[in-house]
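Exercise 3.2. Students should predict the tertiary structure of the chain below and write it as structure tokens, then compare their answer with the key that follows.

Predict this chain's 3D structure.
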Amino acid sequence: MDSKPESQRWSRALKYAIIIGSGLALIWLAVVARELVGSLVIAALLAYLLKPAVDAMQRLPRVTHNLAVLVVYTLFLGILVVIPISFAPVLTERFTRRIGSLAEITQQALERAAGPVHLGELQVLPAGWVDELVQPLRSALPSRIWGSVDLVYGIGANVIWLLVIVVSVFYLLRDGPRLRDWFLRKLPPEWRSDSRMLLDEIDRIWRRYLRGQLILGLIVGVMTVLAMKAVGLREAVMLGLIAGLLDLVPSLGPMVAGLIATLVAFIAGSASLPISDGWFALLVLGLFVLIQQIENIWLRPQILGSTLRLHPGLVFVGVFGALATFGVLGALVVVPVLGSLAVLGRYAHPRILGLPPDDPAWLRAAAPAIELPVDALATPSLESEPVTPSPGPPAGSAMGDGSRSRSL
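Answer key:
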């Protein structure tokens, strides 16, 4: 009987070539599909934000992981749908009424402009001037039509990306723990204990970041409610809630909240100040700008820096640098990324220099046995061979001893 030929072992050069080639391919894919990557990052952040609610539900009797995910995800979708539906009818009616008033004012202005103008004994008929001013607007209608087509296409693309985000949130909530276990199974056995503890510490960094963001959103929401109540803006509590929730998205979220409040101020006016709706809208916009300056310059660096144990100046420069370089998405994740890099740097520094490890307490503790259960519902791509529990990194491991290294 023919024996099965033994597979050839890869050389070190081939291993490095495959690793470098795979890294370059991933970078190229991230650049080409950057919009998809951005949507997946937003979905991961939303799933991470909802994960504590799933964990809390799982502690209840007879509540499985899938049932907890389904309940939390349904509530999440309900919030996304109910808030716009609640505000849309009132705002649409008042906005339509306001636009009708503006149309009447514009028509009256045109009629007056078309009438005769008396300059002493001289009478001027500017009707021809009005026609000359209106004619370019009429000739521009075809381009406006094509602009409307582009607008519809842009709205359709945004709806598709929103659908990608909403669906990805569900799968990340359901299969996130399995993805983590799958990643740990792919590592060499002697690396798994330290890798698991690093992932746990990075998880704590991101949890502290989300807690700091919630505290920041709460403060901004309270400041908004107080400011809007002081000037007599209707629906001040709801606008404060919107401002606090949208504050989770740097720059873009506060801008959207400010525009919503300005629109409400222009439509509804003030209940206490005797000023016109236009000036009141400018006042509300100015208050939102003031609140955002206080948050960006002082509140955000102090709260997030204290929560993640980073210098406030590093938080300030990191957020605005990422906003200018990578946009809103970069500003959204730069602070926890900096905190995660600090964790990896503290771990790698003594090992790179060949010094005795000076690990923090969370890493110096004895590593518990790693148990990676395979979920019965796991997809075939996430399943693998069982992992033998390891009490800790053995002697000579690359992850456990700074004086030794393990070659590929």
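Discussion points: Confidence is low (pLDDT under 50) at residues 364-408. Residues 154 and 282 are 30 Å apart (CA to CA).
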